[in-house]
Amino acid sequence: QVQLVESGGGLVQAGGSLRLSCAVSGFTFSSYYIIWYRQAPGKERQLVAQITTGGVRSNYADSAKGRFTISRDNAKNTVYLQMNSLKPEDTAVYYCNAQNWAYAYWGQGTQVTVSS
Q1: N- or C-end of the chain: fewer Cβ atoms within 10 A?
Q2: Are the C-beta atoms of residues 107 and 5 closer than 8 Å to each other?
């Protein structure tokens, strides 16, 4: 059974930090790109950061550059999103997505709320 379980969200003050985790099971994690998305109320889902299968390369949305870091531990089947210097506009539900050429899987999301 494929599962992607996000955790680590919560309420934080502006300027604070959170570390999101996405624990994966049910497929060969190391063969999948991992992408973090977020969706704020009334807005479209947007890509935040992505990382290649081996974790060598990563890309970020302009809004995340310099503040967020995506990483993965293939031995633990887990991907992380370290978020620093959080802003109220980072408030959203954050989703973990795993994809390869044939399949794409989603987690249920974790809420991040940044207060001003």
Answers
A1: N
A2: yes
HSE-CB at 35 with a 13 A cutoff on CA atoms is 16
Burial of residue 56, with CB atoms counted within 10 A of its CB: 0-12 exposed, 13-18 middle, 19 or more buried: exposed
* Residue type for position 107: G
**Cα–Cα distance for residue pair 60/115, rounded to 1 Å:** 23
Helix (H, G, I), strand (E, B) or coil at 31: helix
State pLDDT tens for residues 56-102.
Answer: 999 999 999 999 999 999 999 999 999 999 999 999 999 999 999 99
CA atoms of 99 and 66, how far apart (whole Å):
25
Given a contact cutoff of 8 angstroms between Cβ atoms, the answer to whether 51 and 57 are in contact is yes
Strand runs labelled E in 15-91: 18-25, 33-39, 46-51, 58-60, 68-73, 78-83
Give the integer Cα–Cα distance in Å for 61 and 63.
5
